[in-house]
Amino acid sequence: xxxQNIAFGxxxxxxxxxxxRMVTTRNIVHSALFLVAVLAGLSGQYVLLAAExxxxxxxxxxxxxxxxxxxxxxxxxKAPIGKSMEMTGTQxxxxxxxxxxxxxxxLYSLIDQFGSDRLTxxxxxxxxxxxxxEVFSTYIxxxxxxxxxxxxxxxxxxxxxxxx
Length: 164
Fold this sequence. Notes:
The chain folds into two domains: 2-85, NADH-ubiquinone/plastoquinone oxidoreductase chain 6, subunit NuoJ (Four Helix Bundle (Hemerythrin (Met), subunit A)), CATH 1.20.120; 125-164. Helices cover 74% and strands 0% of the residues. It contains six helices and no strands.
C-alpha cells in the first residue's frame, strides 16, 4: 500500500505541474503537449485505482484521438506557433480569482458532503471484460452513433483543409 501512495504522490505532482504549465505557457503547441502529460498522468491514476478499462480509454481516446484533433485544429486555424503576447488576455487576474473561488467551493462541497467518511472494503470489482460486454451489447447504438459523428467531424476537417 505504501508503494501505491508514493506512486500516487509522484503522478499527482506531475499532473499538477503539467496543468499549471499548460495554462501559463505562451506557446500553444507546448500547451497541447502539457495537456498530453496531464491526460497521461490521469491515466496512471486510473491504473492505480484498478480501472484498467478507463485508463486504456483515456490513452486511446483522449491522448490518441482528441489531442490529434487539437493539433489539427491548431494547424488549420493558422494560430501563431511561437511566443505571442496577444494570446494572453488582459483579464487574467479576474480569471485566476474566479478559478480560486471555484476551487474553494468544490473543496468545501467535498469536505461538507464526505467529511470523515472512509471507503468500504470489498466492493464489487468490474472487470474490463464486463465493461466491454456492456458497451458492445447494451450500448451498441450510442457507441456507433458517436463513431459516425467522429467520422463526420474528420471528413469536415478534411473539407475545410482543402485549398480548392
